[in-house]
């Protein structure tokens, strides 16, 4: 009987197993990576044209979020301040600080600043800042403790599952409306966030949308 | 037993609806077309033998290679770019609304512009202005796309060479100095008729400084005949406007007052008298005599198809009858010497005249704008005899600056008296009557031509200066509405390409202050005695000045002058025949006179009557076509005198025999990418003397089936089901709920759904009601939807494959008395009905149950939601949709070119195949087109299904505003009727009503309880959220043939149901006389019994 199979076929099963292992490994690695915060860019901290320290402005100087993000209570987007807003103070204070060079340049030439976007959700998801901050969701819930950040980074994954977690359990994040911009607020002793949140949800008739049309249009 | 619906066969005889002649003839090709999920070719990739499978095979390799680069692993860095200086009023992410207005033929149209970060994205009507309901029309909706047209004129050109605006400015200064010394000798201004007080004021300044300067007006769809007749009969500075609020009986003699020849005021007034809310005594009656179906004819209770050249005779006979019935000797005297050709349908005319006379003082006769002055005068005399002046016709004092016509200008140029011609409007190189030979004999003979043009078009060559024109949203101005109300034109954006407005050029000539200062100067006469600044702010805020309408005029018809004018008519043309045909040149519903030819939204909008996209064609009746041996889409040569034109045949039901119509505005030669190569240029057949109707037309067949005409009318069909329901007012009075009991709905039994659905428990439940009784089919909703929802245009080639993306379509059905399936006999006198059709938001939505990836789901508010990012493009949903309202992105229409193609010889195929490069073309839309997009709506990509969302972005915006307003109070109740969908907002006749059906006070809840409200395909238990109010016609019982009108599905409803039962019996093998119930719960439940 002739040799139907040439010699090299002896190693074929091994080769197949090896290939399967490589492919399977690659697929697992890709999926693993997809599940990591890295995929969601959690911790993303790009270099900004001006290393704006939120901790100095908010925690040391006591500025309110809304001095710069002035339309957060009325608009869907929380605006980034115009160069004019920066120059309101920095015409007087730290005006020769080289770190502010880009701001000065923008003011003199009229060319706008190009801040690198950190918190990005897909174009088909429509997030509205105003409705959240007016109904007891603090900045900290999505942006982390920005008031203590030297340079801002992405604190939360901003994935759809993460959004829905809160939309299903808003009581975990609700706080009195006058404490929304106080990022250091903690429930009074003896109360838990759960208790306060549940009470507020009931009082304010909070019923966050969980259907697709709530965010996707 | 599986529940299968056996639809009853269509009745073999009796009236039925049909959408096109192909459907009536019911050819096998048509059957095949209908039975496909998408029309033929829509689901195939591109042409010819290259199937999708082959293409995928070819593409697979290149995609695999593309993946090697792993370019998609990192999200690109994006930037937030705030303003340098804060902008007043502007809040990023929030729309700012401004009042403005649009200059139109009969006066300004009040508008509200929506702007995002300084870019206008949408125009709506201004409901604050008295007499307006917030509606607009297709042209106002599409104007926003014209603003962002990449093919606009961008440069100042001197002798064709690009230069700067300063140089042009210097030239105009020179003109001014020179004219000051000569008194404006040789200076001519060619303008469009406008009702702008500032322009009039500046023109007066020019006339004072340069008394010898001449003013001419040109409007290709001219209204000059109306004006000159009124001037002659009533004296100068008088304006007549029909007032349909008072009119019980309206006769339209080829006057398309609901279409191109009307204004929003008239549409509103007419529809207010058409709407049935319980009582029917206020409903008006419309008679229409016209050669082709128009929007007005489609609304008529009685329509007579009649050649346009015979309408003067018709009017003369009508005048005789009215003189006879009223005993009006003056009218008899006026019409006496005329020798009209005999009227073919005398009984029709007599009954119509009787009806008009019976409603003396409440009747009006309107005639087409472009009929000669003698006919206009005759109609004035008839209206006078009917007591219309002061009741159904308002006589107003409206001063305007008189000027010559384009013919006068041509004569003056030939006389050599014109040295400098300012062409400040229109496109005469394309639109001027052909016998003027504008470019060769007029424009070239003027030493210096200064042209303000929106495009570098047919008129541009040979001009000394070509100035880019600013859009009306780019410059200050003002208008008076047709009733005289003063309206501002506020600019929304700086001129994108640095253009000038007409006013800018005129003020430079006049040496007067420009722009805002010019308008403020004019406004002083309207501001009243109070504080000027306060009045000015109020004007901009409200968008109009109260009590600024034209004053009523005491002028009355000079009857002695009528006789002279009417006598000038000369010999009235005889009847038309196969040897002596006529041709009519109406304006086009899509491109008007040609100014919108480069507007993709309008090009792709199916014509309201013919449903033709991207083209025009020679409309003719089938009788005419048979007599001439022609068929649809044949290329023919039309000859009028020594003028010839090659054009395609468009068969039109309801068209007068031996009469042809070819709309103006198509066949542009120098135009942007969109309008290039579309349609046929009717202007080449049009002369000064025959500017509306030409007689002695000859036609010769060049090539059978020689052209591709893309009508969307056949893309979706009613298949014999009672989708449209109509009856007469009499039916309604007898049984107001008659539409509910039509067809199979007559004995509908309770039904259940086998599927479980999420509960509809939200406080707001959205629904829509569409009133077919007022809907005129103008398609403004379709364009508004396109503007609001970022719907792309797909191009002629794609429309041909049935891939148009409109979320809303306006179904137009013809209905005829004797549709016989086995022996199709064409009714040449069909009635027309229209029905807007979009996603019905079924509560038991068939599309949802078949989606394998849950990409279309129900919200608790009753919305059938489409989730683009889940959709994988199986298109099962579209297949299962009974209304065929879902649209699929076969290409990335927004970001990829669909005009880039290659000819390629593919392995395994003979010859070369055309492939659209699609994904291989550069990605991204051009920067200027991006500006129009609505930021609140996702721009969809390839492979995604989409459909009407009930404007979910508007719903969510309203809910969010309420939540913000509620704050800690928790009061989330939306005020009644806060949410208005884009189609509702735009509708000039208020036919579309959207709202919360849970709120008993809302308009939509009240309409849903109206007796004539019906839901589509109720027997399928889909539970639609959109419902319709049946069309009610108001025929005159004494009219010949009136017994047939509006009876299409009332009388046969029961009969059809009987047929259905018999059919079901046959299927079930049961005895014929035993009543078999509708497919219902019991049978559906049989499935569990194991029989099925």
Question: Can you describe this structure?
Answer:
The complex is a heterodimer of chains A (217) and B (1092). In chain A, 38% of the residues lie in helices and 1% in strands. Chain A has 217 residues and is mainly alpha-helical. Chain A contains nine helices and one strand, in the order H-H-H-H-H-E-H-H-H-H. Chain A is extended. Chain A has a domain at 54-80 and 115-214. With 1092 residues, chain B is of the alpha/beta class. Chain B folds into four domains: 16-46 and 715-1033, Alpha-Beta Plaits, CATH 3.30.70; 156-223 and 401-542, Rossmann fold, CATH 3.40.50; 238-397, Dimethylsulfoxide Reductase, domain 2 (3-Layer(aba) Sandwich), CATH 3.40.228; 581-711, Barwin-like endoglucanases. In chain B, 27% of the residues lie in helices and 17% in strands. Chain B contains 33 helices and 42 strands. The longest helix of chain B has 18 residues, at 165-182. At the A-B interface, helix 4 and strand 1 of A face strand 2 and helix 29 of B.
Brief synopsis:
Chain A is mainly alpha-helical and 217 residues long. Chain A contains nine helices and one strand. The mean pLDDT of chain A is 90.
């Amino acid at each position: 009987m002739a040799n139907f199979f040439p010699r090299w076929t002896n190693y074929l099963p091994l080769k197949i197993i090896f290939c399967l292992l490589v492919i399977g490994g690659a697929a697992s690695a890709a999926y693993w990576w997809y599940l990591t915060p890295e995929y969601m860019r959690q911790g993303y901290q790009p270099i900004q044209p001006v290393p704006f320290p939120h901790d100095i402005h908010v925690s040391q100087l006591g500025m309110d979020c809304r001095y710069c993000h002035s339309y957060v209570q009325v608009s869907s987007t929380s605006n980034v301040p115009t160069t004019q807003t920066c120059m309101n103070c920095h015409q007087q204070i730290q005006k020769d600080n080289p770190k502010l060079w880009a701001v000065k340049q923008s003011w003199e030439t009229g060319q706008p600043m190009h801040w690198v976007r950190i918190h990005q959700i897909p174009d088909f998801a429509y997030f509205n800042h105003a409705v959240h901050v007016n109904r007891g969701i603090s900045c900290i819930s999505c942006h982390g403790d920005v008031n203590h950040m030297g340079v801002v980074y992405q604190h939360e994954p901003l994935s759809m599952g993460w959004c829905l977690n809160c939309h299903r359990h808003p009581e975990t994040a609700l706080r009195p409306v006058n404490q929304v911009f106080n990022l250091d607020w903690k429930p009074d002793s003896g109360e838990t966030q759960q208790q306060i949140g549940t009470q507020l949800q009931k009082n304010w008739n909070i019923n966050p949308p969980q259907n697709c049309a709530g965010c996707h249009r | 037993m599986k529940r299968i619906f056996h639809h009853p066969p269509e009745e073999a005889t009796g009236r039925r609806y049909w959408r096109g002649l192909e459907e009536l003839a019911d050819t096998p090709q048509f059957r095949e077309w209908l039975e496909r999920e998408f029309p033929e070719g829509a689901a195939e990739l591109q042409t010819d033998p290259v199937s999708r499978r082959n293409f995928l095979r070819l593409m697979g390799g290149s995609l695999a290679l593309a993946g090697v680069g792993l370019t998609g692993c990192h999200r690109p860095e994006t930037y937030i770019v705030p303003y340098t200086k804060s902008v007043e009023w502007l809040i990023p992410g929030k729309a700012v609304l401004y009042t403005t207005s649009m200059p139109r033929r009969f006066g300004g149209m009040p508008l509200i512009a929506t702007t995002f970060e300084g870019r206008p994205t949408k125009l709506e009507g201004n409901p604050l202005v008295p007499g307006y309901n917030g509606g607009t029309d297709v042209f106002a909706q599409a104007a926003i796309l014209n603003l962002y047209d990449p093919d606009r004129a961008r440069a100042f050109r001197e002798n064709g060479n690009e230069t700067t605006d300063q140089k042009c400015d210097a030239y105009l200064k020179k003109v001014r100095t020179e004219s000051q010394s000569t008194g404006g000798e040789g200076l001519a201004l060619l303008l469009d008729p406008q009702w702008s007080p500032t322009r009039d004021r500046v023109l007066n300044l020019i006339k004072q400084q340069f008394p010898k300067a001449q003013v001419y007006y040109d409007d290709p769809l001219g209204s000059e005949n109306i004006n000159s007749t009124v001037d002659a009969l009533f004296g100068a500075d008088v304006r007549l406007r029909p007032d349909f609020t008072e009119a019980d009986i309206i006769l339209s003699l080829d006057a398309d007052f609901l279409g191109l020849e009307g204004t929003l005021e008239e549409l509103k007034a007419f529809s207010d008298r058409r709407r049935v809310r319980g009582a029917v005594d206020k409903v008006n009656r419309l008679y229409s005599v016209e050669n082709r179906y128009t929007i007005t004819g489609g609304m008529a209770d009685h329509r007579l198809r009649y050649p346009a050249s015979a309408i003067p005779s018709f009017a003369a006979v009508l005048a005789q009858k009215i003189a006879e019935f009223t005993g009006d000797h003056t009218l008899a005297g006026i019409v006496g010497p005329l020798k009209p050709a005999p009227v073919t349908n005398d009984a029709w005319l007599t009954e119509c005249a009787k009806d008009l006379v019976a409603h003396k003082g409440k009747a009006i006769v309107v005639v087409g704008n472009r009929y000669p002055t003698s006919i206009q005068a005759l109609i004035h005399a008839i209206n006078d005899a009917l007591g219309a002046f002061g009741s159904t016709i308002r006589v107003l004092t409206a001063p305007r600056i008189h000027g010559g016509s384009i013919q006068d200008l041509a004569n003056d140029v030939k006389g050599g008296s014109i040295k400098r011609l300012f062409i400040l409007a229109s496109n005469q190189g394309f639109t001027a009557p052909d016998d003027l030979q504008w470019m060769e004999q007029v424009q070239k003979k003027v030493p210096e031509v200064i042209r303000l043009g929106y495009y570098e078009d047919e008129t541009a060559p040979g001009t000394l200066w070509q100035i880019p024109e600013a859009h009306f949203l780019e410059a200050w101005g003002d208008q008076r509405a047709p009733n005289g109300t003063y309206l501002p034109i506020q600019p929304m954006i700086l001129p994108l390409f640095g253009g000038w407005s007409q006013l800018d050029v005129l003020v430079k000539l006049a040496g007067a202050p420009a722009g805002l200062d010019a308008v403020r100067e004019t406004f002083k006469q309207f501001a009243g005695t109070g504080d000027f600044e306060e009045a000015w702010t109020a004007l901009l805020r409200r968008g109009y000045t109260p009590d600024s309408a034209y004053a009523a005029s005491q002028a009355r018809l000079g009857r002695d002058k009528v006789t002279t004018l009417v006598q000038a008519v000369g010999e009235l043309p005889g009847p038309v025949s196969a040897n002596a045909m006529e041709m009519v040149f109406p304006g086009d519903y899509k491109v008007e006179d040609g100014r919108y030819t480069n507007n993709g939204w309008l090009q792709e909008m199916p014509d309201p009557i013919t449903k033709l996209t991207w083209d025009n064609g020679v409309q003719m009746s089938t009788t005419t076509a048979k007599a001439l041996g022609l068929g649809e889409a044949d290329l023919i040569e039309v000859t009028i005198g020594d003028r010839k034109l090659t054009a395609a045949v468009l068969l039109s039901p309801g068209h007068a025999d031996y009469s042809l119509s070819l709309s103006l505005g198509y066949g542009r030669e120098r135009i942007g990418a969109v309008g290039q190569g579309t349609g046929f240029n009717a202007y080449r057949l049009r002369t000064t003397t025959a500017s509306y109707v030409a007689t002695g037309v000859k036609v010769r067949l060049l090539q059978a089936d020689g052209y591709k005409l893309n009508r969307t009318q056949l893309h979706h069909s009613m298949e014999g089901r009672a989708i449209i329901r109509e009856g007469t007012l009499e039916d309604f009075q007898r049984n107001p709920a008659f539409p509910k009991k039509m067809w199979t709905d007559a004995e509908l039994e309770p039904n259940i759904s086998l599927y479980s659905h999420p509960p509809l428990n939200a406080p707001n439940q959205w629904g829509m009601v569409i009133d077919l009784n007022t809907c005129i089919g103008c398609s403004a909703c379709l364009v508004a939807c396109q503007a609001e929802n970022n719907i792309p245009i797909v191009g002629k080639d794609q429309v041909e494959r049935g891939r148009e993306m409109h979320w809303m379509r306006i179904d137009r059905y013809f209905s005829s008395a004797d549709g016989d399936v086995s022996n199709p006999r064409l009714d040449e006198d069909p009635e027309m009905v229209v029905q807007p059709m979009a996603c019905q938001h079924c509560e038991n939505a068939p599309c949802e149950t078949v989606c394998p990836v849950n990409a279309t789901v129900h919200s608790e508010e009753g919305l059938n939601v489409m989730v683009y990012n889940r959709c994988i493009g199986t298109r099962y949903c579209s297949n299962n949709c009974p209304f065929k309202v879902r649209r699929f992105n076969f290409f990335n229409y927004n970001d990829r070119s669909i005009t880039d193609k290659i000819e390629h010889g593919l392995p395994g195929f003979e010859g070369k195949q055309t492939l659209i490069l699609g994904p291989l073309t550069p990605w991204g839309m051009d920067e200027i087109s991006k500006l129009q997009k609505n930021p609140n709506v996702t721009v969809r990509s390839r492979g995604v299904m989409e459909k009407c969302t009930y404007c979910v972005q508007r719903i969510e915006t309203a809910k969010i505003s309420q939540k913000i307003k509620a704050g800690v109070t928790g009061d989330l109740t939306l005020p009644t009727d806060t949410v208005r969908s884009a189609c509702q907002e735009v509708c000039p006749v208020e036919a579309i009503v959207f709202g919360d059906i849970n709120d008993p006070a809302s308009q939509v809840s009240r309409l849903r309880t109206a007796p004539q409200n019906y839901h589509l395909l109720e027997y399928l238990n889909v539970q639609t959220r959109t419902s319709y109010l049946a069309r009610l016609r108001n025929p005159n019982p004494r009219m010949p043939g009136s017994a047939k009108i509006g009876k299409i599905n009332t009388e046969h409803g029961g009969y059809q149901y009987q047929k259905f039962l018999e059919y079901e019996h046959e299927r079930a093998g049961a005895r014929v006389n035993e009543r078999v119930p509708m497919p219902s719960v019991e049978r559906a439940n049989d499935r569990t019994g194991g029989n099925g």
